[in-house]
Amino acid sequence: MQGERTDLQGKSIEERFWSKVDIKGLNECWPWKGYINPSGYGLFRYYDRYIGAHKIALILSKENIPEDSIACHKCDNRKCCNPNHIYPGTNSDNQRDRYERIKTKRRSMCIEVNLVT
Length: 117
Ligand SMILES: [Zn+2]
Fold this sequence. Notes:
Layout: H1 13-18, E1 43-46, E2 49-52, H2 53-61, E3 70-73, E4 86-89, H3 91-104, E5 110-114
Antiparallel strand pairs: 1-2, 3-4, 3-5
The site of zinc ion (ZN) has 6 residues, from loops.
């Protein structure tokens, strides 16, 4: 983790981010306590932009994430920011996941959020 990044309020991004996550047990969902958009995803304000909270959780907790990755939830909880429930996927993973879910009539857990945007 790079601890040098700070935001305008002088707190590190990590500090500000995790203070808005309801951190629970390792295998439980960690709900986002900040702003939730109408689609049900948590949003984190980063300077003048809003970024998916689960995406930040992924970026802060994992290294060497491929640039074209998308942040996918293993759980079916869009508000969840537990890094153990989020993994970097690719669009083809996402499509395969969606296909499997249509076949098995499960709801999709994978969302298309590009890490680069
Ligand atoms: Zn979860």
